Automatic annotation (TrEMBL):
Protein's cellular compartments: Cell membrane
Source superkingdom: Bacteria
UniProt key word Cell membrane: yes
Molecular functions per Gene Ontology: ABC-type vitamin B12 transporter activity; threonine-phosphate decarboxylase activity
Organism this protein belongs to: Marinomonas gallaica
Function, as annotated: Converts cobyric acid to cobinamide by the addition of aminopropanol on the F carboxylic group.
Keywords of this entry: Cell membrane, Cobalamin biosynthesis, Membrane, Transmembrane, Transmembrane helix
Gene label: cbiB
Name of the protein: Cobalamin biosynthesis protein CobD
Pathway membership: Cofactor biosynthesis; adenosylcobalamin biosynthesis
Segments crossing the lipid bilayer: 6-25, 68-89, 165-184
Gene Ontology cellular-component terms listed: plasma membrane
Keyword Transmembrane annotated: yes
Pfam families recorded: CobD_Cbib
Length: 316
């Protein structure tokens, strides 16, 4: 057994081995619920906001400064702990630590489970159950959505979160190891908690939003290429370039536009958020989606994950 284990380590780099092992763990175990470390991190983030956020009447620059300080206090101690842990680990165990950390920072199986929970009732024409399921992953009002609107909201979430929850953590893990994956996941979580343009968070959450935009910029463009080569290449690249730039997020727009173009459907358009209609650009080209297109979006992300894993194994 030792001989076989050493042969595997010699054949693949520790990075490639950790990526493949983490993906297999994620598909096998799924995402831990009650004891996921990000739950504890979220509680820590809430304390940091309580301690450092100023009243909205404070100046914009002072609110932003406190947001930077809160971001640093929320994230940097955990990166320091990880760096110390990796330093004291015996030689040869780095890939195990990397596997475990990457497993906790990706959400491939969780994304699939959420999408399937929407698709199954849609296939059975059970719209109330589908609306309830899609309401767990999107922030828009889902109470009156029809089949097409449910499929559209679900596909947008699957395509965008394919980048945020799977490909971006892998990208930073390959580039910077466990440190990169942890930095990305904590930053992305902070953006999800503080990055809203509400009066309370517009300036305090400015740092969290900008850091997340920076960390997602290159991975999102890699995902655009991934969706393109696995679907309609010409339409995916055209939509990402011409439509994605008009989206409110500089990274989500190109990713969703590329996915819609690759699958040849139309996403975006008007949607109700918090009781108000938001007119959003159209992404992609083709008919509006139905439940079968949601199935195709899940398969597109799955094929992208397999392609990335294969390339990492071959290149590294």
């Amino acid at each position: 057994m030792d001989f076989l284990f050493n042969a595997v380590l010699n054949t693949f780099s520790s990075t490639a081995l950790a990526v493949v092992a983490a993906l297999l763990l994620d598909r096998w175990l799924g995402e831990p619920q009650s004891w996921h470390p990000l739950i504890w991190f979220g509680q820590w983030v809430d304390r940091c906001r309580l301690a450092w956020q100023l009243p909205i009447g404070a100046s914009k620059s002072l609110q932003r400064l406190h947001g930077v300080l809160a971001w640093s206090i929320a994230v940097l101690p955990w990166l320091m702990v990880l760096t110390l842990l990796l330093w004291v680990l015996p030689n040869g165990l780095e890939w195990i630590a990397g596997t475990v950390l990457l497993y906790f920072t990706i959400g491939w199986q969780s994304l699939r489970e959420h999408a399937i929970a929407i698709a199954e009732p849609l296939h059975e024409q059970d719209l109330p159950a589908a609306r309830q399921a899609v309401g767990r992953i999107v922030s828009r009002d889902t109470s009156e959505l029809n089949e097409t609107q449910i499929a559209k909201a679900s596909m947008e979430s699957v395509l965008e979160n394919g980048s945020d929850a799977i490909f971006a953590p892998i990208f930073w893990f390959v580039l910077l190891g466990p440190f990169g994956a942890l930095l990305y996941r904590l930053s992305n979580t902070l953006d999800a908690m503080w990055g809203y343009k509400t009066p309370q968070l517009l300036h305090f959450g400015w740092c969290a939003a900008r850091v997340d935009d920076f960390l997602n910029y290159v991975p999102a463009r890699c995902v655009v290429l991934t969706y393109a080569v696995l679907g309609n290449v010409k339409r995916a690249l055209y939509c990402a370039w011409h439509q994605g730039r008009g989206w409110k997020s500089p990274n989500a727009g190109p990713v969703m536009a590329a996915g819609a173009g690759a699958l040849q459907v139309s996403l975006g358009g008007s949607a109700v958020y918090f009781g108000a209609i938001q007119v959003r650009p159209v992404l992609g080209e083709g008919p509006e989606p139905v439940v079968n297109d949601l199935d195709q979006a899940v398969r597109l992300v799955d094929k992208g994950v397999l392609l990335w894993a294969l390339l990492i194994v071959l290149v590294m």
